[in-house]
């Protein structure tokens, strides 16, 4: 559940204010927060892990 909470926060907004072009969350940026939550809930655990791993690498490199 902690991972999902992190994903919800990341989906709401990038901690660096602007998403990088390769950010996997860029594709849902135009959705409402409620739509983003539904999108996250439909992801597989592997997809969620991929997004979180991308965020960790991105944050480290910024």
Provide a descriptive summary of the structure in words.
The protein has 62 residues and is an all-alpha fold. Helices cover 61% and strands 0% of the residues. It is built from 3 helices and no strands. Helix 1 (2-12) crosses helix 2 and helix 1 packs across helix 3 (45-61). The longest helix is centred in the C-terminal third of the chain and has 17 residues, at 45-61. It starts with a helix and ends with a helix.
Could you give a short description of this structure?
The chain is mostly helical.
How many helices? The count is 3
Could you give the order of the helices and strands?
A: HHH
- Report the mean per-residue pLDDT as an integer: 92
**First-residue to last-residue Cα separation:** 27 Å
The coarse overall form would be globular
Q: Specify Rg, calculated over alpha carbons.
A: 11 Å
Main sheet specs: none
Structural class by helix and strand composition: mainly alpha
Kindly estimate the percentage of residues that lie in beta strands according to DSSP. under 5%
Topology record:
Blueprint lengths: L1 H11 L20 H10 L2 H17 L1
Helix pairs in contact: 1-2, 1-3
Features:
61% helix, mainly alpha, single chain, 62 residues, 0% strand
């Amino acid at each position: 559940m902690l991972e999902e909470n992190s994903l919800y926060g990341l989906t709401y907004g990038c901690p660096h204010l602007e998403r990088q072009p390769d950010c996997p969350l860029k594709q849902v940026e135009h959705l409402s927060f409620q739509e983003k939550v539904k999108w996250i809930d439909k992801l597989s655990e592997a997809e969620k892990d991929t997004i979180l791993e991308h965020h960790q690498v991105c944050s480290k490199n910024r």
